């Protein structure tokens, strides 16, 4: 990409700070996006293209100790030290799904846990999924975490908050039809 005349080569997943939007992966930047330098000056994305290479290319990831952001290029553009800190966890800590079930049962007037899409009762002895309550979807949590610059431990602590989930039938969960499609995030 070209920013204020300077070419910056990066991977598509590296987060850059976009004015009024927070950290955005490089692959999602568009011409005209306003990036910030170390002094808070606006720098424009003037050109953007993705290059697919036939041969593997060496790239280097590094972490900056004690800081979640660092600066790149001659203009010292603000980027995130995210690495894989906000990748989707493979599961939940012990007890989180049980607590989610019990909270849903306690909040039901008849103590029957129902699927939010179909209204059908969910049998605790049959497969069910941990579904995000509207406003707590993973993409929103990830964006919030990147913007706040939290570490992996805090990210996982927040991910394992049972109050952000509800039981859903697998078919409802896979359809994503019960998710809030706005950008409103109700978490931290």
From the spread of the alpha carbons, the general shape counts as elongated
Strand-residue fraction?
Answer: 15-25%
Q: How many E strands?
A: 10
Strand order of the largest sheet: 2-1-6-5
Order of helices and strands: EEEEEEEEHEHHEH
Largest sheet: 4 strands, antiparallel
Distance between the termini: 32 Å
How many structural domains can be distinguished in the coordinates?
2
Sum up the structure in keywords.
about 190 residues; alpha+beta; Endonuclease - Pi-scei, Chain A, domain 1; 2 domains; 4-stranded antiparallel β-sheet; two-stranded antiparallel sheet
Provide structural commentary.
The chain has 4 helices and 10 strands, in the order E-E-E-E-E-E-E-E-H-E-H-H-E-H. The chain has 188 residues and is α+β, with helices and mostly antiparallel strands. It has 2 domains: 79 residues, Beta Complex (Endonuclease - Pi-scei, Chain A, domain 1); 80 residues, no CATH class. It has a 4-stranded antiparallel β-sheet, with no helix packed on it. 22% of the residues are buried.
């Amino acid at each position: 990409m070209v920013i204020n005349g300077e070419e910056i080569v990066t991977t598509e997943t590296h987060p850059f700070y976009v004015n009024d939007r927070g950290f955005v992966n490089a692959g999602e930047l568009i011409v005209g996006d306003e990036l910030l330098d170390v002094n808070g000056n606006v720098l424009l994305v003037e050109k953007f293209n993705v290059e697919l290479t036939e041969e593997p290319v060496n790239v280097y990831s590094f972490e900056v100790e004690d800081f979640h952001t660092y600066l790149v290029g001659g203009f010292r553009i603000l980027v995130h030290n995210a690495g894989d800190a906000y990748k989707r966890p493979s599961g939940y800590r012990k007890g989180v799904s049980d607590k989610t079930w019990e909270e849903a049962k306690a909040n039901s007037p008849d103590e029957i846990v129902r699927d939010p899409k179909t209204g059908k009762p969910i049998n605790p002895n049959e497969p069910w999924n941990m579904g995000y309550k509207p406003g707590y979807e993973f993409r929103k949590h990830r964006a919030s975490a990147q913007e706040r610059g939290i570490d992996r431990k805090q990210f996982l602590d927040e991910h394992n908050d049972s109050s952000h989930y509800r039981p859903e039938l697998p078919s409802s969960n896979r359809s994503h039809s019960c998710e809030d499609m706005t950008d409103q995030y109700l978490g931290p």
